[in-house]
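Changelog-adjacent note: as of this version, every example in the card shows the full chain rather than a window. The one below runs 278 residues end to end.
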Amino acid sequence: MNGKRNEMYCSTGTVIGRVTGFDHSVIERELPRVCELTGADGIEHVITPAFYDGDTEKLDIIRRSGLRCAVVHADKDIGLLLSRGGEENARESMRLWRKNLEYTRALDCRRVVLHLWGGTESDLNFAYNASFADEIMSDAAGYGIDVMIENIPCVSLDPLSRWHELEGCGCGFIFDVRFGQLHGQIGKIIDSDYMKSGRISHIHISDFGGGFRQFSAIRPILHPNEGTVDFPALFSGLKNVGYGGTFTLESPVMSEDGLDIDKLCRTLSWLREQIDSL
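Full-length structure tokens:
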């Protein structure tokens, strides 16, 4: 045992997306009950481009829910725009970054997940993306917010190599299990100094339906035990290194037929059991 209870959160991305018309009312309507039934300690709120339209109302919904927003997942377009290159894209990326920091602070949250690269270009021009790290970290420090860079897919090198190139910028890291499986790096990440030192302080949980660097299998995002991730080995590894950080379930329950809240509760309850075994 690591001596304390590892917290677990439910991503708002499990219930909010294109198929639901980005209806944020579900946060207030459904997620308090889900968290109560499953032992979830709050939410990780995902900011999408749809959030900017009516952002004040959406922030109020989150506040009225009474749920603690423990982590904010910044808009993925921030890294995507940087990866495209060009001054205009860079300006828009940094504008969005500061706007996302404002939202994070407004939700009384102190941790934000960032995709530093993304899209078709991914990490092809990584040195350019990384050149904005100091500005990114300085902006976040001004809001009192900790930044966690995610191990999202790479088309040039691999996420762990890219983390190595960011060692000096002072950021933390967030380990996405699905992307770890895509790149065959789950074991390497668990055994890394980043994990042992606590620099990895957060983990995204979902499953992956493909093999090594099978990018076509990134979607659909599967629930644990529906894909190729060896979850017993994952949690055994985390226990062995004494992982003391937090977790978020990212597996969605949206379809044209509506939300499968029962499935969300089953998966979160299963995850709570695994986390409590650490």
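Structural remarks: The chain has one domain: 8-276.
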